[in-house]
Write a structure and sequence with these properties.
This protein is an alpha/beta fold and about 290 residues long. It is built from nine helices and ten strands. The chain folds into two domains: about 110 residues, Rossmann fold (3-Layer(aba) Sandwich); about 160 residues, Alpha-Beta Plaits. Helix 1 links the parallel strand 1 and strand 2. The chain starts with a strand and ends with a helix.
């Protein structure tokens, strides 16, 4: 559904009526004083009835959608948005619908580009570009509020054997199966990405190392129980997974960022591989053993 938000100093029933002709769109009129709180309404398009009344909000916010101003074009305003346009009053309905649809297309294409640039084609999970941005945000939040943040880096054991024995097509099927299984187990606030060829990195906000280990072990056991039977085979191919856990803050008196936290999870994963695979290893425990 496309959310069209009209910021106005007065009711605009005729405008709302015209917008009812837009497919899969819902229009809502809001007081222009509330424009600074635009994010709550998740707008696909903003329509502003009074430019002068909106000047402060326009100068102090960067809008993630296009804006359509009612009135003559103005060069004396600052607009930070995905795009903007003007339409003079009185409004011609046909022209208005054309301009609204054009601006909605800009938003649609921008969102699609964003999804493509941050999504892994094979699994549909987020990719490393998305991970880097979000993990930095979550670390900042964890630092600010003094909460724990855990990362688990999973790696499919002997994945190359699957590709060599059954072909890359079946390797892709296994990757998707594991990605779907992991995605079904996580919380809404967790961040799941495809990190490497056969690696998945899971970010768990507000999660201690102990709870991350419990989750990692539960997922490891679920993978161990999988029935993966490539075409033409009579028996299931045994699948296992290894994992490494790091929890921010990881070490005292160390300036840690996203790359640091991931690197600690990688060290723990390598330790799990070295110790025979099909294991979940905590970075802090690995340090104690060294």
């Amino acid at each position: 559904m496309k959310n069209i938000i009209i910021y106005s100093t007065k009711p605009l029933p005729d405008l709302t009526f015209m917008l009812s002709d837009i497919d899969e769109a819902e229009a809502k009129t809001v007081s222009i004083e509330q424009m600074k709180d635009y994010a709550v309404l998740n707008p696909s398009l903003i329509i502003v009835e009074n430019i002068d009344a909106a000047k402060d909000a326009l100068m102090t916010n960067k809008f993630p959608c296009p804006i359509l101003f009612l009135g003559a074009s103005r060069k004396d305003i600052t607009v930070r948005a995905e795009g903007f346009d003007f339409i003079q009053q009185p409004i011609n309905k046909d022209e208005f619908i054309i301009r609204v649809n054009a601006l909605l297309k800009i938003k649609e294409y921008k969102d699609k580009i964003e999804r493509v640039s941050t999504t892994d084609d094979l699994t549909g999970l987020h990719n490393r570009k998305y991970l880097q941005e979000r993990l930095e945000e979550e670390i900042s939040r964890s630092r600010r509020y003094g909460t724990k943040l855990s990362c688990i880096l999973f790696d499919i054991d002997f994945f190359k054997v699957v590709n060599d024995m059954y072909g890359y097509e079946w390797g892709d099927i296994l990757l998707r199966n594991i990605a779907n299984k992991l995605d079904a187990m996580i919380r809404k606030e967790d961040i799941l990405t495809r990190y490497g060829d056969e690696e998945f990195l899971l970010v768990l906000p507000n999660t201690s190392e102990e709870n991350a280990f419990l989750f990692g072990e539960r997922f490891r056991r679920e993978v161990e129980k999988m029935e993966f039977i490539p075409a033409g085979e009579e028996e299931a191919h045994r699948v296992t997974i290894s994992g490494g856990i790091s929890t921010y803050p990881c070490m005292k008196d160390v300036d840690e960022d996203a790359n640091t936290v991931i690197r600690y999870a990688e060290h723990a994963l390598y330790n799990a591989k070295h110790r025979g695979k099909n294991k979940i290893i905590q970075f802090s425990q690995m340090n104690l053993e060294m």
